[in-house]
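Proteins fold reproducibly. Take a tokenised chain:

. . .
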Amino acid sequence: MIETLDGLPDGVDGFRPVGRISVADYEQVVVPVLDRADAERRRLRLLCVVDPAFTGLEPDALWEDLRVGLRAMPMMDGCAVVSDIGWIRDAVRIAAFLIPYPVRLFGAAEQAAAADWLRELPGGSGFSVQLLDDGAVAVVRVRRPLRVADIAALTATVDDWLRTHDELGGLVLSAPSLPGWQNLSSLLRHVRFVAGHHRRVRRVALAVDGTIGAWAPTVADLALHPEVRHFRHADEALAIGWAAAGVPAGSAAGPAEP
């Protein structure tokens, strides 16, 4: 079975596997947590306590573990694993190199420290995406390197709009400097987003300080469909106004014709 942990900080969910884990355990305990977080558009911070009461997974639960893990991946801010079991610690160290969100190991006596670490993660305050309904402009504000989950959130927001409209009038990136990417996975996810969406965006405004931000529009104009313009970070409002000017008259009033 999988037990849920009580007494954790707000925003932290915890699990403790006990005995041998089955598919039903995932469906009855873990999946509802993902469903609630998805419905609330809430990020996940997971604490997993693995002690000698855990004896492994049923064969069919291996695939369920992978399926649930892939679903949770774009929703994750971080995961803390509490265990003194050698093979668990070795497996987590290997997985941490492949997973596009922070993973940290703690000893069995450090559960409180693990919960505090999760509570103090930067999380969503470093990234936000807002769709301005009256202007069909997506505003992305970033204060840290982009993560896979950030690109997933941006993709979901833009795709929601494009389901009922031909194009997005404008997209604004607002950051003190070009944020870069957390890892290769986030870079590749960003490249896929740009390749799959740039022909349906009219204008891109970069409200970013720094030399790279200033010459980025020149490079972008050579390969991308949108008109791209650079602004100072302090001029975010001007950037939004310019991007909104790319919205065709009446485009935000209703769905596109089939």
